[in-house]
């Protein structure tokens, strides 16, 4: 169970950051807006949002019983490390538990990490597309020089 809030030091002051499930989904969804080749598909019963690049899913959003979540593709080694480091990251809900993670609100992950997870998931899926269908170079897209 997560701490409910994360403490992040900013200079000499400390600021409490709490990211609930709805904020988590908003940040993740907003992060996809500028990604080349992304389409959003809505599915109902239960309510699912599927974010795809060239027809391949890289992110899903839904409500697990009682709380909103974001489900993302992740490198298996990274996924294991993330699950160990963050209480609010668990194996992928209704997905391959080795290649997918579920992120939920609760306080152990922040906005920056959510954005990094979305971009990494996008790059992983783009990297699996035929080169002629890749909207960006997955090895360089979104990385800082």
TrEMBL record:
Top-level lineage group: Bacteria
UniProt-listed Pfam families: YjbR
InterPro entries: YjbR, YjbR-like_sf, YjbR/MT2646/Rv2570-like
Signal peptide positions on this chain: none
PANTHER family (UniProt xref): CYTOPLASMIC PROTEIN, CYTOPLASMIC PROTEIN-RELATED
Protein name: Cytoplasmic protein
Organism from which the protein derives: Streptomyces brasiliensis
């Amino acid at each position: 169970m997560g701490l409910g809030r994360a403490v992040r030091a900013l200079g000499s002051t400390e600021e409490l950051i709490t990211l609930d499930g709805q904020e988590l989904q908003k940040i993740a969804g907003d992060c996809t807006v500028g990604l080349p080749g992304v389409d959003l598909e809505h599915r109902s019963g239960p309510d699912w949002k599927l974010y795809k690049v060239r027809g391949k899913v890289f992110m899903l959003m839904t409500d697990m019983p009682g709380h909103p979540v974001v489900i993302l593709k992740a490198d298996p080694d990274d996924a294991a490390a993330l699950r160990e480091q963050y209480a609010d990251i668990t194996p992928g809900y209704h997905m391959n538990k080795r290649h997918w993670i579920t992120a939920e609100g609760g306080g152990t992950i922040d906005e920056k990490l959510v954005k990094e997870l979305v971009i990494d998931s996008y790059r992983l899926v783009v990297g699996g597309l035929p080169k002629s269908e890749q909207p960006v170079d997955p090895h360089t897209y979104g990385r800082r020089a």
